[in-house]
Design brief:
Layout: H1 2-25, H2 27-48, E1 62-63, E2 71-77, H3 79-82, H4 93-105, E3 109-113, H5 123-128, E4 140-144, H6 147-151, H7 156-172, E5 176-180, H8 195-216, E6 220-222, H9 224-227, H10 229-234, H11 236-239, H12 249-266, E7 277-278
Parallel strand pairs: 2-3, 2-4, 4-5, 5-6
Antiparallel strand pairs: 1-3, 6-7
Helix pairs in contact: 1-2, 1-8, 4-12, 7-8
Length: 285
């Protein structure tokens, strides 16, 4: 997926960023920029590669079973939600969140993951949620998706429509929903300039739209760019895995810590959320 992402980031630049450049500096300069961006995308593909394949480790089980009274935690979305990049199941994002929730609530946590590597937002309601039995009633759901929408040039309106559908479906099951918005792609150092800047702009625009729509649909929102993004920018060697695209186990640990306040608030174990988090207007916690 990582090499595919790099390839499509090049197409984003051609389709979105170049149009403005052509109008400003003329067709000749615009054509030159297209060539540069395509070359940069090819370089990024060679650097990133696919060292983890396209299937994340299976971390689903009950954590801290001895506590009892299990919390049902569901992970949906893309490779980050699935935990691609962790070298051990316990290092995936879902496992980190399950262990953290169990420690803070003194309840066991049953982790269920339907998130899939490479998923775009529309795939969540059409491919992931249908895998859940009608009788399955999660207590809290973490949704992280959007990076592939940016790299695959999915229109923002389509991405947001699918996200709202996901939130509404999950809330109908009685679940609280926490949405981690699209990460800022400027943290991906293998992507050279101006490719990285164009990806950053598109990812931030999608994240803003996700936050607004998710809040209106009744979900908690965590800005990953604000809550954990600076760690990836300042400590890329530690926060990214060997593919330099997906989080390392430390990266997932930091991401879980960033998400945790909203999970606790959604479940009624906290009254307020910190900077980078937003609670829906109808929240009673």
């Amino acid at each position: 997926m990582a090499s595919e992402n790099a390839r499509w980031l090049g197409r984003i630049a051609v389709g979105a960023g170049v149009a403005g450049a052509v109008g400003a500096v003329g067709a000749a300069a615009g054509a030159g920029l297209v060539v540069v961006l395509k070359r940069q995308a090819a370089q990024a593909r060679a650097i990133i590669g696919k060292p983890f394949g396209e299937v994340a480790l299976d971390a689903d089980r009950v954590y801290k079973k001895r506590f009892g009274d299990p919390i049902e935690l569901l992970m949906v979305g893309d490779s980050i939600a699935a935990g691609l990049g962790a070298s051990d199941p316990k290092g995936t994002l879902g496992a980190r969140l399950a262990k953290g929730l169990a420690k803070r609530t003194e309840r066991s946590v049953r982790l269920t993951t339907v998130a899939e590597v490479g998923s775009e937002t529309w795939m969540v309601p059409e491919r992931q949620l249908p895998r859940l039995l009608p009788s399955y009633l999660p207590d809290v759901v973490v949704v992280i998706v959007g990076g592939n929408d940016v790299t695959h040039r999915i229109p923002v309106a389509e991405s947001i429509g699918a996200l709202v559908e996901v939130i509404e479906d999950l809330r109908e099951r009685g679940a609280e929903v926490v949405v981690g918005t699209c990460p800022d792609l400027s943290a991906l150092r293998p992507l050279p300039q101006p490719l990285r800047t164009l990806g950053s702009r598109a990812s931030r625009q999608l994240a803003a739209a996700q936050a607004e729509a998710a809040l209106e649909a009744g979900a908690y929102v965590v800005s990953l760019a604000s809550a954990v993004g600076p760690f990836f920018v300042t400590n890329p060697d530690e926060m990214f895995s060997v593919d330099r695209f997906h989080p390392s186990e430390l990266g997932y640990k930091r991401t879980a810590q960033a998400l945790m306040p909203s999970l606790l608030a959604a479940l009624g174990y906290a009254d307020e959320v910190p900077f980078g988090h937003q609670a829906p207007a109808d929240s009673q916690h």
